[in-house]
Amino acid sequence: MIPAMFDYVRPATLEEALGHLAKYGEDAKVLAGGHSLIPAMKLRLSQPKVVVDIGRIGDLRFIEERDGKIAIGAMTTHYDIESSDLLKRSCPLLPEVADKIGDIQVRNKGTIGGSCVHADPAGDWPAAMLALDAEFEITGPRGSRPVAAKDFFVDMLTSAVEPGEILKLIRLPLTAKTVGYAKFTQKASGFAIAGVAAVVDKARKSVTIGVTGVAAKAYRAAGVESALSGSELSTANIGTASQKAADGVDPLSDIHASAEFRAHLACVQTRRALELAVSRLP
Amino acid sequence: MKTPVKIRVNGTLRESEVEPRLLLVQFLREVCGLTGTHIGCETGVCGACTILVDGQAVKSCTMLAVQADGSEVTTVEGLSRNGKLHPVQEGFWECHGLQCGYCTPGMIMTAVHFLERNASPSRDEIRHALYGNLCRCTGYSHIIDAVEHAAKKGKT
Fold first, then answer.
1. Contact list, A4 vs chain B (CB under 8 Å)
2. Are B29 and B65 in contact (CB under 8 A)?
3. What is the enclosing helix (H) or strand (E) of B146?
4. Residue of A27, A72, A104, A119 with fewest CB within 10 Å of its CB?
5. Structure confidence at residue A26 as a pLDDT band (50, 70, 90)
């Protein structure tokens, strides 16, 4: 399996990359870590005429605390996140999710930005981005614009990043340890059949739940969130509320899991993610 | 449009003009003649093509040769020193960590990389590390023995 022919450019700066995208328009595709794009190109599902490799743009790969928020550059690898002491202290959901993505080799090369922009319905990051209310900074010919996580994942394999634009960084809140990620994995690929990220606030007053793998795009389990809002996070309450994890969604159905099974898994993983987060309450 | 690349493979600088669509594994096998790196599933799942790029284990079927331009690559051929096997290779030898051997170069390269990050792993950590390497002979427990052997050897 070999990709169709294409031209290759490797800009050194973001400005240069945007210049290439402006020049080649919809014929161009941005290459980040390549772990979504290259497989798609090998299957000829994607046949860009020009590949713009942003892998050498150094200032897109960082993890920092800025103005009371975490900022992560789009080219930061899953392993960078998995091994970050700053994140383990200040945004522990991210290393927990990163460790469950694919395998060592994939985590060494795949990037958080590439994965989010690709918007694979079975990718892990969207669940965490939604649960954390992440903000994406997208840059393009008209400057930068912020996009909230709830507006970023538009549809299956479609994010808010338009042709000509590049995702620059992701901003996330600092959180307590009270987070959890539970995932039912497709064993060969490591992708999520149902992955649920839960964030419980320290005051135990509210929870946020992001669900991936279940529907065409990741979603917030609003029914679960409202059922638990203001209520005691007891095992019984979590169990009852988790039953709403697939309410109002149209689950995917494929050889790995039927729609009915996926909806069931969404509920089970929601309960597990919440129990994990609550077990970490001080 | 061919693109020039300079890639240092097992210490030897290889310069070539390649089509951008040439996969790194093809560069190693067809341009460099290093056939120790195997092509298995070609979909990024099986790990048979695992090599080190700048010290990091990656699947060379899911990377373009042009992406490795300017990098240091290590393949299974580059592990032994002065005719002496690398501790991980020795572990596979001593513990019978292979049957047909097809997955072995990838298993070894992942294990080499993993032991650099974690020199004293538990068996569960070894299993987690080898998640992206499939063995169709299902000789997994001997493979884990082999990595454990190498870890112990590394400490003595």
1. 21
2. no
3. helix B140-155
4. A27
5. very high
| pLDDT at residue B155, rounded to an integer | 67
- Decide if domain A7-53 falls under CATH 3.30.420.40: no
For residue B62, list chain A residues with Cβ-Cβ distance below 8 A: 34-35, 38-39, 109
Task: Report the amino acid identity of residue A206.
Answer: S
Is the distance from CB of A257 to CB of A193 less than 8 angstroms?
Answer: yes
A58-173 sits in which CATH class? alpha beta
For residues A215-229, give the mean pLDDT. 97
DSSP 3-state percent helix, strand, coil across chain A (nearest 5): 35, 25, 40
Partner residue facing A108 (CB), from B19, B20, B56: B56
CA–CA distance, B139 with A81 (Å, rounded to integer): 32
CA atoms lying within 13 Å on the CB side of residue A209: 36
Whether B156 shows a pLDDT value over 60: the answer reads no
Non-local (6+) Cβ contacts of A125 within 8 A are: A97, A101, A112, A115, A116, A212
C-alpha to C-alpha distance for A179 and A161, rounded to whole angstroms: 28
Query: Cα–Cα distance between A228 and A127 in angstroms, integer?
Result: 18
Place of tokens 């046949």: A47
Does B3 sit within 8 Å of A1, measured CB to CB?
no
- A276's CB contacts (< 8 A; 6+ apart) are A180, A181, A182, A198
- Can you give the C-alpha Rg of chain A in angstroms? 19
Domain at B100, CATH number: 1.10.150.120
How far is the C-alpha of B106 from the C-alpha of B90, rounded, in Å?
Answer: 15
Q: Are residues B69 and B91 in the same domain?
A: no
